[in-house]
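This part of the workshop introduces the protein records we will be handling. The question running through the whole workshop is how a given chain folds. To make this concrete, we reproduce a full record directly below:
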Amino acid sequence: MYSKIVTDVFFDLDHTLWDFEKNSALTFEKILSDHHIGIELNDFLKVYVPANFQFWKLYREEKITKEDLRYQRLKTVFDALNYVVSDATINQLSEDYIQYLSSYNHLIDGTVEILEYLKPRYKLHIITNGFEEVQNKKMSNAGIYKYFEHIINSEMAGVKKPNPVIFQLALERAKVSSKCSIMIGDSIEADVIGAQAMGFHTIHFNSHNDIPHDYCPIIHDLGEIKSYL
C-alpha cells in the first residue's frame, strides 16, 4: 500500500516497540520492595497506570514540567490509597524508577521480527516524547538501537508530539519529505493526528484498545505492518 512511496519509517518507542507496561510494572515491583512500601503491586498499578496516562497528557500539552510529572504521578497514587509517604521518599522513588526502568528489556511481541523485515527496505527512525536519558538506554539494553538511523526526542526538539516542530525536526534530520515518510505509533493524538498534520502517512498500532476510527489503517499486531510496507 505504501511500499512504492515510502522511504523512511518513523516509530514511536513506548507502547509501540518497547513494552512499557510490563517493564514499568517490573520496575515498580523492585523499587516498592526496596523502599519497604506496604502496597500490593496490583493495587498500586491500578491507580498508577491511568494517573500516569493523564499526567503524560498534561506534559505533552506543556501544562506541567518534567519534575511535576515525575512527582505528581506517584503522589497521586499514595494519596488515593491513603498511604502516607514523605516527599523525600517520593522523590527517591522517582529517581529510582528512572534509574531502573531501562534495565528491563521486554519488547512488544514481534518487534525484532518487524525491524529485521523493514531494515533492508527502509530507513528507520524513532520519534519519542520520552526523556533522552532513558530512551537511549532502553533501546540499547533491549538490543534495538542498531536498527535506527535517527532518534528524535522531545527534549532535543524543545516540544512534544503532536507539536509539528518535532516532526519537522525529524524530517530535517532524516533528510526526507513527509510524503515519503510514515509514522507508526500507539497514540492517536500524538502519533497519528500529529504526524498527519505534517503530511506523514500513518499507521495506528492500537495497543490500548482504542475505539475504531477513520484516521488511518489500524493494526493490533506489529506483523501486520508487512501488509502495508
